UniProtKB/TrEMBL annotation:
Name the record gives this protein: 4,5-dihydroxyphthalate decarboxylase
Highest taxon of the lineage: Bacteria
Organism from which the protein derives: Aliidongia dinghuensis
Length: 329
């Protein structure tokens, strides 16, 4: 078989490093990999489609699919996953001391369709009973003014979303113009140690572990998207890439569990990895649809409720049929 050339843009992750460095080779594919900042990848791929395969915001991808965009498809590879209770920032002297205090307040978000914000609003509504329509939502860049939405929204009636193009969320939080910020990227005021800014959930690891035990949701932030014509022309490409990403991840997990000579400059890193397996199972960062159905369905429900997705999708709407199931021996 002649190898087909494909270009891939993805951030630097240890669990994809063996693929992007060429130590894992997807069958039948000659891959050129670009490692770029995630915001740049999203912007350039959504605006210009500069490469064949791209890491992409889960929310933006799902939104496009829900609007009938047929230019993209994806494989169930999830390079970024992170719980988002840790991503709620408040003022120490402010009116928000608990999650239920967020009702009726002014809350800043970088984009309504940011994946992290979708999950955060989802747990506020479904875990803590916060009415999203009671909140004044302020949209602005986290640390720079001028950020805007990347996809068309279908906001529910009663949602109040106001752009603030001349200020950053970090500035507004410090100045008390917003009571809280929900954001994937920590605001500068928090990163630089502002004494009056803190996480709402300061013991977030315990809160997030309990959330997982209760719901089974391990939030997916990013997917790996492909130009649809690549898969239409060569349907086998989807599974070839999925298997290569799986192998790269397997090698990374093996490195994390290495006891004799730890591969990462983090004390007890192998014990952290083992404890993750105790909580999440042996494959504690699963790819594929079946192993992630609970998370996928919860996210798609939240995205539709919040007007990021224009219709309620199923996991099967997101991925080509070739990767929805695997052969077994």
């Amino acid at each position: 078989m002649n190898e087909i050339p494909l270009t891939l843009a993805i951030s630097r992750y240890d669990h994809v490093e063996d693929l992007t460095a060429g130590r894992v080779v997807p069958e039948g594919i000659r891959l050129t990999a670009l490692s770029l900042p995630i915001e740049e990848i999203f912007f350039r791929f959504l605006k210009h489609r500069e490469w064949d395969v791209s890491e992409l915001s889960f929310a933006k991808y799902a939104s496009l699919i829900s609007q009938g965009d047929r230019s993209l498809t994806a494989i169930p590879v999830f390079p970024s996953r992170i719980f988002r209770h840790s991503s709620v920032y408040v003022r120490r002297d402010g009116p928000v001391q608990s999650p239920t205090d967020l009702a009726g307040k002014r809350i800043g978000i970088p984009e309504w369709a940011q994946t992290a914000a979708v999950y955060s609003r989802g747990f506020l509504k479904h875990q803590y009973g916060v009415d999203l329509k009671s909140i004044d939502w302020i949209q602005a860049g986290v640390n720079e003014p001028g950020r805007g939405e990347k996809v068309k929204l279908d906001l529910p009636e009663g949602i109040r979303l106001t752009p603030a193009p001349t200020k950053s969320l970090s500035q507004m939080l410090v100045e008390g113009e917003v009571d809280a910020v929900l954001t994937a990227h920590a605001p500068d005021c928090f990163e630089h140690g502002h004494p009056n800014v803190r996480r709402l959930f300061e013991d977030y690891m315990a809160v997030e572990a309990d959330y997982y035990r209760t719901t089974g949701i391990f939030p997916i932030m990013h997917v790996v998207a492909l130009k649809r014509d690549v898969v239409d022309t060569n349907p086998w490409v989807a599974m070839s890439l999925l298997k290569a990403f799986e192998e790269a991840k397997r090698r990374s997990v093996a490195r994390a569990l290495e006891v004799t000579a730890p591969r990462f400059p983090i004390p007890w890193c192998f014990e952290h990895a083992r404890r993750a397996q105790d909580l999440f199972g042996e494959d504690h960062w699963p790819y594929g649809v079946d192993a992630n159905r609970t998370t996928l369905e919860a996210f798609l429900k939240y995205a539709h409720e919040q007007g990021v997705c224009h219709r309620l999708l199923t996991p099967e709407d997101l991925f080509p049929s070739q990767v929805l199931s695997r052969f077994r021996i």
